[in-house]
Structures are given as structure tokens and as C-alpha cells.
Amino acid sequence: MTAPATIDTQANNVFQTAVATAIREHGELGLQVAVYHRGELVVDAWGGIADETSGRKVDRDTVFSCFSVIKAVTATALHIQAERGLIDYEQPIATYWPEFAAAGKDRATIRDALSHRLGIPQMPDGVTPELMSDYDWMVDALAKMKPRFEPGTDNAYMCYTFGWIIAECVRRTDPERRPFNTFVQQEICAPIGITDLWIGIPDEVESRIATIKNSVPRPLPPELPIFSAIPPQVATVEEVFGRSDVRRSCNPGANGIMNARSAARIFALLANGGALDGVRLLSEERVRSFSIPRVDTDRSDTILGFPVRVGTAGFWLGGDVSDEYPYRLVGRNPRTLCHPGAGGSIGWADPDANLAVAICHNRMTHAPSEAFAPIRDAVTQVFGVT
Question: In whole angstroms, what is the distance from residue 280 CA to residue 95 CA?
Fold first, then answer.
């Protein structure tokens, strides 16, 4: 397959070298990088191994489990409903989903959910991969759940639960009541030409998925809060997310399966002020508002255990907050919108540079900043962004 006409050969070569360096010197297995600049795909680079068992190599059409990168798409779907006047961010979730009012959540707002201040980061008791794959079971369980704190009063990153809560608000306000993954395909992917981004794959995609290489286990205390949000039985490992039922499930907070080209295209929409190739999904004013940080950004998140610069609209934000991932990777611009995924996959949009970057890989790592350093250097070298 020939490369698209917009690919910048010189820039692509720089990134192709960076991909090779990340594999050779930093332990990466399979890797894709795509970059949009001013609305055009200018870099589409890849390399390495998609499946160690078979030796299958990564190509431009390999798709990867990118986990929470999909939250950027899920949030975008909700913003489309707000754009249409169907959702008000400051209204209680129960306005659209009456069952959600149970157990003291009657005043919890859409904004609380978008900013990870809702109070229900924890997964339901007894969850299994099979139950996690049952969308209706998950939304029913979350509607009944008691929050850990009064919504809006603390920060608690919703590793998985974010997806079902935001998605159900979209579904409830969709006049056609479409399944959320159908909504995403019809209202986001099709209009702007995204071809390989899935929340629950069709059968024909399975042969193109890269196998996850699990990270080396770390000796962590079982009482850590993160294990309530990601219980071990539904962890981000190949044994769970490589299952046929999980791959096909609508898990809009963690089951994003995509290639870098498609991931970068959703961030290109954001970098370009809500429009791409003449198709406008969001107003420029709304997209600018996505860079507003939530309150207490300097306060440690009660699930992640460290401060995260999260916005009020469902995205992580850039900024010179620390030298850690993802900030070292996405840069110092506080208006940059990004979303990392478990193990390191990430996408970001720098609206000032009109630049969107996505990195997809299959090696789960605890040190993505180090692994992706050659790619960060390539972004600076080619586009001058720091």
C-alpha cells in the first residue's frame, strides 16, 4: 500500500529512525507513530513485532490496544451532544439518567464526571472479564453504586468507570438511542474519515490486533487505591484484553483498539479547533474551553497517588508540571489536550502548533517517557515544539 500524498518524506524518515531507536535501544516491541500538522497527515511511521509468538510484524494497518486513549473519543462524543444542546455540563447526570441518582449521587453533575471528581472510580464488587464485557450490567451496577466521597469534592481518576458513565449519558440523550460504539462510528469516525478506531471490534479486525506484552510485575501492596479502580482480575494484561469477548465489548473508558493514524486523526480534529477536512463537529469556542484545568490540580489524585493536570472536559492537559510522563512527552503548552493509556500509548493535540501526535505500542511499560524519548526528540526536531 502506498503512503498518502501528504506524507512528508523527510519528516517521516526522522520519525522512522526514532521508531527504530525506541525498539533497538529502549526495549520497545511493536510501535506506530502518526503526526498531523495543520490538518494533514505528515508522518505515518511504524516498526517492530506485533506478535512475538508468530513473529508477525507491525505494518501501517496493525491495530493496538491503547486502553484509556479512547477516553478522548468518549469525551468528544459527549461534547458533540452538548454542541447539539442535548447535554448541559452543569446538570446532574440523573437529569438524563434517572437511575444514577441512587446512593447519594442525585446532585453529581456531568462536569464532575468529566473532571474525574465524581467519587466512583472503583469497579463493582465481583466484576469479572465476562461482566465487564456486558455494557448493560456495568451501567446498572454503576448507577446503584455509592460514591466514595461527595461528588465534586475530591479528585479520583476513573480508570475504567469514566467510560460507561459518559457513554450512557450520550446514549440517553441520543434521539436514536444507539449503542455507544455505534454512535462513535456514525457521528465521529465516519464524518471525519477515521477508519481504524474501535470500542469493540468487528470480527474482521481481530487478525490485525497486536498482542500485548505484559509489563514485569511490580511488588505493590494490594490495598493501593489503584486496585479498586483496576482490580487484578480485569487488569490491563493480554490474558484479559486479549480475550475475544473483551475485545468485542463496549468499554468506552479502556477498550480502545486503534492504529496511530486513526488515533492521531481524532486529536487533529481538536488541534484544528473542532473541524477537519471541512467537516465541523465542535465549535472553536467549545474546543478552547477544553483546556480549562479542574480545581485542585496540584493535589494528589486519590487513585493515582500523584497530582495530574486534568481538565474540566475529560482530557489531560500539557504544561510544565513535572518531568514525568505524560508531561515530558506532550510538552509545556498548558493548552495541549492529551490522553495517555495504560502502558504508554498516547495521543495529544497542541492547538497553538496545530499539531496532533499519536503513539501506539504493545509493550506495557512503567517508564514510557524513557521509551518514547526518541519520538519526543523527533517532534522537537521536525516541528520545533518543546
Answer: 28
